[in-house]
Amino acid sequence: MVKRSPSGRPAALSQARPPQRRRGRERFARLLDVTEQLLVERPDADVTLAMIAERAGVPLPSVYHFFPNRNAILIELARRYHQDLTELNLRPMAPPPDSWQQLVRARHAIGRDYLNAHPAALRLFMGAGVSVEVRTLDLNGNTSMAGLRAAQMRARFDCRGLEGLDEWLGNAFGLIDGIWAISWARHGVVTDPFLEESLRAAVAYLRCYLPEHLPALPANSGELLE
Q1: Where is the stretch described as Disordered (predicted)?
Q2: Which CATH architecture has domain 22-71?
Q3: Could you read off the pLDDT of 137-183 as tens digits, one per residue?
């Protein structure tokens, strides 16, 4: 029988238990760090909670205290990657971009560099064996990132009349992800040529809806989200 939540929907079997105390937060972070190390060494399907416990030097029951199953810890690791990517994309660009094309290119190049520096993130997000829950978290994260990118564009450029901007940018994220997945499958990283191909595809798609030139707004109007 499928366990269900009070709402009648299937219960989230892969939901982690967030730590409340400092020691618990430290152990939680340590388990995520070890999981990342193991994902660099082997496919995610080969990583078990027992393996994580042994590498971390933590009793297996303590791992189960936070994570009911292997997928739960993979989801939390994916969540941490998306939080890092969001923080990176909130940092101001210096100098500010002169065009929407430059903004798109610069921001996605930052994301590519982060992923290449975290091979486990590439395996989680680009690998063929990724779970439905991890994939859903990744898609939701991309949707949030597209909203952030739209806010950055509206803060920097006159985007009046572009009501579909969030959706268009979300679709552009999908194009970029698809091309990056091909690069990861072939090379284990997102190479410079594949980065350029992905940006060409995204900019070409966005040109279907955005004018070639968007007037820049006064500098002080976009200082929070440049």
Answers
A1: 1-24
A2: Orthogonal Bundle (1.10)
A3: 999 999 999 999 999 999 999 999 999 999 999 999 999 999 999 99
